Predict the structure.
Amino acid sequence: MSEKERADWVRRWAEGDYPAREEPSSLLVAWAKRLPRGRALEIACGNGRNALYLAGLGFTVDAVDIAAPALKLARQAARKRRLAVKFIEADLDEHPLPAEAYDLITTSFFINRNLVPRLKDALKPGGFVIHEHHYLTDVDVGGPTDRGWRMRPNELLHLFLDFRVRSFWEGLEHERGRLIAIERLVAQKPPASWEPPAEGPGDSQG
């Protein structure tokens, strides 16, 4: 991430541009409680709402963000709730991720396509990725105004076709009084011996 981008994230959190949302992602709530407890990683954790939820379920949690003001809020919330989370201030372009270390990796409303291969490597075989993000649409929706900060339709699904896709949804919904366009994915890293299914009729890209 460039210094300008980093400074922008820090400024946004310092100036309170983000709503003080404390509830975890509904996608994460629906799935995490069904998964075996283990080691989890949240990418771009912000104020820690998802990381704290996972810690409350019994996961051992690492949570990374580049914005110190966001992590300050996260640590305050962790102390208040007496939950243990390892919050890490780091640029994900530079922060090393251990190989096959995590049972669950989650991120909400953050996109870094170059990071995806490293996230896959950081998951244990059988581990899960839970990911949600805004996608491009011609409908007037809330969220990022920069088109580069949105997924293309079905892009999140295609990024994880080498995984076992357990759930994928894409569509419009109302959240906090505004219409948003969201992709939601739950996928599982297969064993090393597993191969993704062959393309079906009509699936070939040519």
Summary: Helices lie at 3-14, 26-32, 49-57, 68-81, 116-122, 155-159.
